[in-house]
Amino acid sequence: MTEDRKVLTTRQGHPVYDNQSLRSVGERGPATLENYQFIEKITHFDRERIPERVVHARGAGAHGYFEAYGRIGNEPASRYTRARVLTETGVKTPLFVRFSTVIGSKDSPETARDPRGFAVKFKTVDGNWDLVGNNLRIFFIRDAIKFPDMIHAFKPDPVTNRQEAWRFYDFVAHHPEALHMVTWVKSPWGIPADYRHMEGSSVNTYKLVNAEGVAHLAKFSWVPKQGVKNLTSQQAAEIQARDTGHATRDLYDAIARGDYPEWEFCVQLMSDDPHDELDFDPLDDTKRWPEDKFPLLPVGRMVLNRAPDDFFAEVEQSAFGTGVLVDGIDFSDDKMLQGRTLSYSDTQRYRVGANYLQLPVNAPQEKARAHTNQRDGVMAYHVDRGGQNRHVNYEPSMMGGLQEAPRPAKEYHQWVEGHLGRYQTTRTQDDYRQAGDRYRSFEDWERDDLIANMVADMKECPEPIALRMVWHWWHCDEDYGRRVAEGAGIDLKEALALPPLPNRPAPGGRLQGPTYTSGQAEASAQSHAAD
Fold it and tell me: Which residue ranges run through the membrane (predicted)?
């Protein structure tokens, strides 16, 4: 590190002493609205591109319906949630789905090695529910304040306008929690064969809330009834040479011939508590919930049976947000979910306009038509009025304006207590373990493809980055690290001689180095009280 490196600051010139963590109430508590550094960072990030999406720019969409089984596994769905979209059988809820790649631009190839977006807008009788996730069940980072940095590292170099492997791994080398996701993405699972044959996941943790106000932590997954199919790098290159939009073509052609894609909707459930018995925090979206402990429980099915009439009007202008929930489905304190809930809707207001929810593809169904006191703004073409008196656009009123809906019989309440500060999770044992487990779970051909991709990438990286990545992979699995080192011509002994990263978890342990933990916060508070 050179001595003349400048200090990172905010746009206001304030020095940034912690660029890793949101301010939250305790280690696992909710983020706070006064997260000025994060809000400035994420809202500026949301405005970096126009008109296409900053991420998930390349996409395809289709209309269809969701049909609930009325059960979650072998239990009535009402035991866990009061959301009618999940409890009422025989009801076909209309929906719109948008599939996408993440990093590439609007016209990038659909064979890219990249996570795939899987966003579903349920138009329920109680209003819209947006479930916005990816094809894989995890993510690269667990704190939303890192999202702009991550995307900047994965996007093209600002000088050369080329995606460079060293930039990607320079970021990953500093974030061991990303090793799990990178192991997935660099394997054949990083290139789904098409949209019909890939899984989907909420990635984030939500809560299901029942009529008694009891909550359970929940993760949602889509399982394709067509089966899962992925591509090797060679197969993807052969397809890309002929067709850069093969996945869009496959989706539209399947619907046109009546071969409607179908997925089973499943949920994993966990009691609403910290689960200290686990080596990871269930709110950490870089970790999978083990299915032997938390099985995928069927909830319903989704069928896509109609292609869009106009790509721009329906696919390009479709807008999703993780904050769009219906009663019976609630937020957890997942820090990525909390950050996405601000960012996603903020992006749509900037990209599409203040009245993006008036567009037919985004508007709720007629039974749940919007009635608000929000007025005007760019591109307003009707008024969401519903009161008896058109002159009253405020609430409360005695003159016939809109009124509040009745409260649920038993509301969900969460007790929150803790010291306000910036926290990194201390439960990091599985940052390496889950990546190693994933490597060992792959079939031989999947491991071979993964190693080939890693070796090619390491050959493009400067020596310090390549050595550190081999160190990481070896600590995930010795065979993993050894094969990458041998293939890329990297000295394994030199890599293993590296010390652990400062302020990052050591393999198999908890967070190393100085960090502001809940215990330190409590000790600090007691010290000040004594003074």
Answer: none
Q: For residue 429, is it within any domain?
A: yes
Q: Which member of 56, 175, 472, 475 is catalytic?
A: 56
Which has the closest alpha carbon to 282: 266, 296, 271, 292?
271
Q: Does 345 lie in the same domain as 434? A: no
Q: Which residues participate in the annotated binding site for heme?
A: 344
Distance CA 140, CA 133 (A): 13
**Helix (H) / strand (E) containing 224:** strand 215-224
How many structural domains compose the chain? 2
Select which of 35, 128, 134, 230 is catalytic.
134
Structure pTM?
Answer: 0.89
Are residue 210 and residue 318 in the same domain, yes or no? yes
The whole-angstrom separation of Cα 21 and Cα 37 is 10
Say whether 197 is catalytic. no
Q: What per-residue string of b and e applies to 381-418 under the rule 16 or more CB within 10 Å gives b?
A: eeebbebeeeebbeeebeeebbeeeeeeeeebeeeeeb
Is the same domain home to 360 and 475?
Answer: no
Q: Is 134 a catalytic residue?
A: yes
Binding site: what residues are annotated?
344
The pLDDT tens digits along the chain (531 residues) read: 456 788 888 777 778 888 889 989 999 999 988 888 888 888 878 887 667 888 999 999 999 999 999 999 899 999 999 999 999 998 999 999 999 999 999 999 999 999 999 999 999 999 999 999 999 999 999 999 999 999 999 999 999 999 999 999 999 999 999 999 999 999 999 999 999 999 999 999 999 999 999 999 999 999 999 999 999 999 999 999 999 999 999 999 999 999 999 999 999 999 999 999 999 999 999 999 999 999 999 999 999 999 999 999 999 999 999 999 999 999 999 999 999 999 999 999 989 988 899 999 999 998 888 888 888 888 787 877 666 788 888 888 888 888 888 888 788 888 888 998 998 888 888 899 999 999 999 999 999 999 999 999 999 999 999 999 999 999 999 999 999 999 999 999 999 999 998 877 778 765 544 443 434 434 433 433 333
